[in-house]
Fold:
Amino acid sequence: MKTTLTLIALFCGLIMTAQTVTDFDGNVYETITIQDQVWLKQNLKSLHYTDGTEIPGVCAYNNNDSLASVLGELYTWDAVMKGSQLEEVQGVCPSGFHVPSSAEWEILEYSLGGPSVAGGKLKSVNMWNAPNCGADNSSGFSALPSGEFDTYQSGAFQFLNAYASFWTSTFAGGQFAVERYLSYENCESTTNNWYKDMKYAVRCIKDDQAGIAENNPFDDYKIFAGEKEGSIVVIIPQNASPEVTVSVYDLAGRQVYTDILPQSGTHIIQCPHSGLYLIDLTRKTERKGQKLQTR
Structure:
């Protein structure tokens, strides 16, 4: 894997960085930064892991390599994970990137306004069947309708130009893992637990190189305005220490919510009405405050 940085100096003196990533097979991918996440801008096309071993069961839609050059390859979950069940493993991804967890997809969705509208902001305006609900690709993610191979029911390729299904690295137990999918029919980014033998597309996300700074213990915690009026979304990372106290105050200093969130995952806090709130995170001697305007 090679990483190439192209530096462009702007007239105002700012430097912008465009990054490309090359996999073992020589496929070159652009990256897109959305909030503080860095994603590959195209679906994965790899036929080999970074150690040179072949990825089992990988296929192009209709076994058509010309489609794979645009839409990427399709993979089973076990192949994507290279046999692991641990979230955020490298798996099929190039070095420095990993298979995104369901929580990382949630962070992406809420940074775009929530799951009910994120699909439209993630979808390309091209190749999708009409009506391609909400599609404006305002995120730059450029999701294409890559379809899938259904090993569970039809035993066939299906849904080209209609759906895009992506594996996450989150195991759902037994034969199931968590997928994200986008549809031409609605504006949502939808989650589902489905059979690991299904063959879906993969988008890789960059590893967190910085980690959590000592004096910023909550840097990996994500706080967004929820989809409902007055709601707040707190996403606690998988490896976080438990039992964080979350308190919410209005502009008058009144506490409108407080609770101990005992585990990682997504937590929805409902405030009395829309407005500006102060969210206070505390754990032992550690503390972080953040202002947030709810919808």
